[in-house]
Inverse folding.
């Protein structure tokens, strides 16, 4: 079992239960687990590898709680640049209908690389469209190759335009097929053990793209197999109008009717939850993945994160898909979270430390994990480091942790995931990016050309 000692760390934020922060401390990793934090002389003098941490700030790896990795193939599409959610989706469905297994795999490599370099060590993915030979398995393969902790959702769409849904009929799936494949990937890939690198969630896409029957059956399957449930909810006012017209309910009332409340459920967005909704979320321990960049880009609104946090709702952060953001920088999303709440509620609405807690502890809670999101003995060895002697942090040593968000967000200099060094010196060590990016561009261009025929 290999060991790693990071010595004399300039600043370490544990995000543990006591929110302890240390200066000039060392951290020992043994295998995939943190063995101890303290003075170097009290830890191991015989570690297999010793790193110098004198110029580093170290904190837990960030947890991304909502994403669509495949969407980085359709970034900045001119026809969708200024569209709200429904128009944006209707513009992009024909392109996404050209996806193949190769496209999903390559886009996953690119998206995961971008996330890891931005500080993410655990991420979800919500793949809900399965044309041609597309499958969830290839995204898991990509995550294994890069070395990131992965919570993919077997998403789905079954309600086409002919039955009142938003997606074209030719991109939706048969519901029995959806549930059968969901059961298959859970059986093949889901690992409930502590320190697991892959866990599966059940993820019908949204109230406007799946039937009520599929929402109910998906919840039943997830609970029978003891996995989590994830869907989009309360993202836009258009969705609110759709739910009232189609079901005679608000989005959250509809979710409750279909069995989608509880500690095993987390929603993406929650922009338009109001007071009564927030009380329900808190009482039922239902979680929300906040996607500030995407919400701003699509003009969806500002989610009431300050109120959710104050009332005890479980909240995590997310980059969302790379065609509605069009970036995958999780540290940047933490900064946007802090700043947007200040736009809405004033300069003291949300602190940098609270935003970083949402990006670490908060995300871990949404994913049902007590082994990530904090640095302490016995926790998974998932951590990130930033050099404090770089230009962006000049003059900010007064509060190194606050500087990560008040100053311009940067990429990490160090990332350790499951005890393995994945980023060192700012370079991704597990993937040669250049040939993957060339392949990605070819696929993106070919998809757009096919969609135009």
């Amino acid at each position: 079992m290999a060991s790693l000692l990071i010595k004399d760390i300039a600043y370490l934020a544990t995000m543990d239960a006591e929110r302890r922060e240390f200066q000039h401390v060392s951290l020992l990793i043994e295998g995939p687990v943190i063995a101890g934090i303290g003075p170097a002389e009290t830890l191991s003098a015989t570690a297999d590898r010793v790193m110098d941490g004198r110029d580093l700030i170290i904190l837990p790896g960030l947890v991304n709680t909502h994403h669509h990795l495949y969407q980085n193939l359709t970034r900045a599409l001119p026809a969708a640049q200024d569209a709200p959610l429904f128009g944006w989706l209707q513009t992009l469905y024909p392109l996404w209908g050209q996806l193949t297994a190769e496209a999903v795999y390559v886009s996953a490599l690119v998206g995961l690389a971008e996330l890891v370099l931005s500080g993410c060590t655990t991420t979800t993915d919500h793949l809900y469209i399965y044309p041609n030979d597309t499958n969830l398995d290839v995204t898991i393969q990509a995550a294994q190759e890069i070395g990131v902790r992965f919570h993919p959702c077997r998403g789905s769409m079954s309600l086409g335009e002919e039955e009142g849904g938003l997606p074209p009929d030719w991109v939706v799936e048969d519901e029995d097929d959806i549930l059968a494949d969901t059961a298959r990937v859970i059986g093949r890939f889901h690992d409930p053990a502590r320190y697991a690198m892959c866990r599966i969630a059940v993820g019908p896409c949204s109230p406007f793209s799946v039937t009520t029957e599929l929402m109910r059956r998906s919840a039943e399957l997830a609970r029978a197999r003891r996995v989590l449930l994830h869907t989009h909810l309360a993202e836009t006012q258009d969705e609110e109008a759709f739910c009232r017209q189609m079901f005679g309910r608000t989005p959250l009332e509809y979710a409750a009717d279909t069995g989608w409340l509880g500690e095993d459920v987390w929603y993406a967005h929650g922009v338009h939850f109001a007071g009564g909704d927030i009380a329900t979320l808190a009482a039922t321990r239902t979680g929300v993945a906040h996607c500030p960049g995407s919400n701003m880009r699509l003009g969806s609104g500002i989610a009431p994160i300050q109120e959710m946090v104050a009332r005890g709702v479980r909240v995590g952060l997310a980059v969302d898909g790379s065609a509605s953001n069009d970036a995958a920088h999780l540290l940047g999303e933490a900064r946007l979270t802090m700043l947007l709440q200040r736009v809405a509620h004033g300069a003291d609405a949300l602190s940098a430390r609270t935003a970083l807690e949402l990006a670490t502890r908060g995300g871990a809670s949404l994913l049902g994990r007590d082994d990530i999101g904090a640095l302490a003995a016995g926790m998974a060895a998932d951590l990130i480091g930033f050099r404090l002697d770089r230009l962006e942090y000049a003059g900010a040593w007064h509060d190194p942790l606050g500087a990560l968000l008040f100053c311009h967000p940067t990429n990490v200099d160090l990332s350790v995931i499951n005890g393995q060094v994945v980023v060192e010196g700012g370079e991704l060590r597990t993937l040669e990016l250049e040939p993957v990016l060339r392949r990605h561009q070819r696929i993106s261009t070919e998809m757009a050309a096919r969609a135009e025929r």
The CA atoms of residues 293 and 325 lie 5 Å apart.
